[in-house]
Design the sequence.
């Protein structure tokens, strides 16, 4: 069963240095969806060091739960975030949401 549009929760504004938790979830897809996050249409790798653009970010991305946690946000983390839920039957994407730091 193809995933439905996931529900994305993105904080609108986060003070510099604070923790920010972004959540993405849908529960109709079968098998269970895995989640990937995007900032300004760029994929956020679960292994953050692999992308030079995100080397200054300290975050943890859990593809199973759809949770993206920034441990200490900085100005560079500001942007439009969206999430895609994917399984064997297809994928669905939530609307981009702005997070300001």
Sequence:
């Amino acid at each position: 069963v193809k995933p439905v549009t996931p529900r994305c929760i993105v904080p609108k504004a986060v003070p510099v240095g604070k923790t920010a938790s972004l959540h993405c979830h849908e529960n109709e897809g079968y098998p269970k969806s895995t989640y990937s996050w995007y900032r300004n249409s760029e994929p956020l790798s679960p292994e953050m060091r692999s992308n030079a653009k995100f080397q200054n970010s300290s975050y943890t991305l859990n593809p199973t739960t759809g949770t993206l946690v920034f441990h200490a946000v900085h100005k560079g983390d500001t942007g439009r975030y969206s999430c895609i839920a994917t399984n064997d039957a297809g994928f669905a994407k939530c609307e981009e949401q702005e997070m300001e730091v």
About this structure: The mean pLDDT is 92.
